[in-house]
From TrEMBL:
Keywords: Activator. Pfam families: cNMP_binding. Residues 11-43 form the Cyclic nucleotide-binding domain. This is CRP-like cAMP-binding protein. Transmembrane segments: none annotated. It comes from the Bacteria. InterPro entries: cNMP-bd_dom (IPR000595), cNMP-bd_dom_sf (IPR018490), RmlC-like_jellyroll (IPR014710).
């Protein structure tokens, strides 16, 4: 699993093999079972971030009416940033739950700072990865706003096809901003197109 992390260090840093090995051996890897919560909406918590080596994590919140709204799915080689939770006294606006057995790099602010001090290129790597992530989120949000439900589903099939079979359909529908019934109709209509 750590070879994924090594790939990013090779891509975004000029750390030599020995330094890369030292970094990969010092990072904390967590194994989480399906259904495990990384964080619950409304909880206080330590500041952490995650990087998915294997598995799928769902980000969601419960709205005022008590309905769960899926805001994202994180799969292999994606960072799980927790931007709205920068102060420990703040309550989390979201829940993060593993939809599959998952293996994650667990980043904690204090230990990350020690690593950044020792290997300054890691901070650059993290920043570059976050810039890429932020750019993708901005583009996805702009596309989401201007697209129809069917266009959103077509986009998921094109950009993240694995989600269609990995996540429950009612959660995928919520993520796409539609009802499960609407998603079912769209899928049926699209299947007829390919027949």
């Amino acid at each position: 699993m750590k070879e994924i992390l090594l790939k990013y260090m090779t891509q975004f840093t000029s750390l030599n093999e020995e330094e890369q090995r030292a970094v990969s051996e010092s990072v904390r890897i967590g194994e989480y079972q399906k259904g495990a919560y990384l964080l619950r909406q409304g909880d206080h918590h330590d500041i952490k971030c995650y990087f998915v080596l294997k598995g799928c994590v769902r980000q969601f919140f419960v709205d005022e009416s008590g309905k769960e709204v899926t805001s994202n799915f994180f799969t292999e080689e994606q960072a799980i940033p927790v931007f709205n939770d920068l102060a420990k006294e703040e309550l989390s606006n979201y829940s993060f739950v593993c939809l599959e057995d998952s293996i994650l790099v667990v980043g904690e602010l204090d230990s990350e700072q020690v690593m950044y001090n020792k290997y300054s290129q890691l901070e650059t790597m993290t920043r570059k990865m976050m810039e890429i992530n932020f750019s993708e989120v901005q583009n996805e949000f702009a596309e989401f706003i201007k697209s129809t439900p069917e266009e959103r589903y077509r986009s998921i099939i094109k950009k993240r096809p694995q989600l269609v079979n990995r996540v429950p359909q009612h959660q995928l529908a919520s993520f796409l901003g539609m009802t499960p019934e609407s998603l079912s109709r769209i899928k049926k209509r699209m299947n007829k197109e390919f027949i």
